[in-house]
User: Which sequence fits this backbone?
């Protein structure tokens, strides 16, 4: 009788452990909305007249990833930053960027038993600035390219309600840093531009 009882306890424990492992791994999909920000890294410092260079829209994200365990995930994101406009003091647009970014990152953190997970992300991103002048035309010329590669870094926290183990909510900050070549007095320089965002999102784990 005691052996049967112990065997039953062992089987129930194994079943529960398997459920915990299942909740801590698997594919997930989600979306998010957030702020948009830019640090131009001195790119506009050589412009003599008063100007502003600001993000005008929210960011929108599509998120897909795979959780290996409570610590490690690999994540891909598509991020649309909306319009980032360079304007004169009078408010006239000089040019507009509409950055679209695809990134692949490692998501490293830890999921606690209460459903809270703190994490950091680091990886690579591909950036298309989609630059347009005020008249709608696009830059042209030998060697001009408004796309390139960057580095993505971020930190955040997630919460998975105990009663809804497949659904997670995320609050995070992420930034993409990339270099832009500039020419000043015939000399080529590189400015590091940073696009960043605080965002709130939700993911579903299958």
Assistant:
């Amino acid at each position: 009788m005691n052996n049967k009882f112990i065997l039953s306890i062992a089987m129930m424990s194994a079943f529960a452990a398997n459920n915990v492992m299942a909740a801590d791994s698997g594919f997930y999909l989600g979306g998010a909305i957030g702020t948009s920000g830019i640090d131009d890294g001195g790119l506009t410092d050589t412009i003599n007249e008063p100007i502003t260079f600001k993000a005008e829209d929210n960011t929108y994200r599509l998120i897909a990833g795979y959780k290996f365990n409570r610590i490690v995930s690999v994540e891909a994101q598509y991020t649309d930053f909306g319009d980032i406009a360079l304007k004169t003091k009078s408010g006239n647009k000089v040019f507009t960027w509409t950055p679209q970014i695809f990134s692949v990152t490692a998501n490293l953190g830890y999921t606690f038993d209460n459903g809270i997970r703190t994490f950091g992300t680091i990886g690579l991103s591909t950036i298309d600035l989609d630059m347009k002048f005020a008249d709608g035309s696009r830059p042209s010329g030998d060697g001009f390219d408004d796309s390139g590669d960057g580095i993505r870094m971020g930190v955040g926290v997630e919460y998975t309600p105990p009663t809804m183990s497949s659904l997670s909510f995320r609050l995070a900050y992420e930034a993409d840093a990339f270099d832009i070549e500039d020419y000043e007095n015939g000399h080529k320089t590189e400015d590091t531009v940073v696009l960043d965002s605080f965002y709130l999102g939700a993911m579903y784990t299958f």
Remarks:
- The chain has one domain: 27-205.
- Helices lie at 2-23.
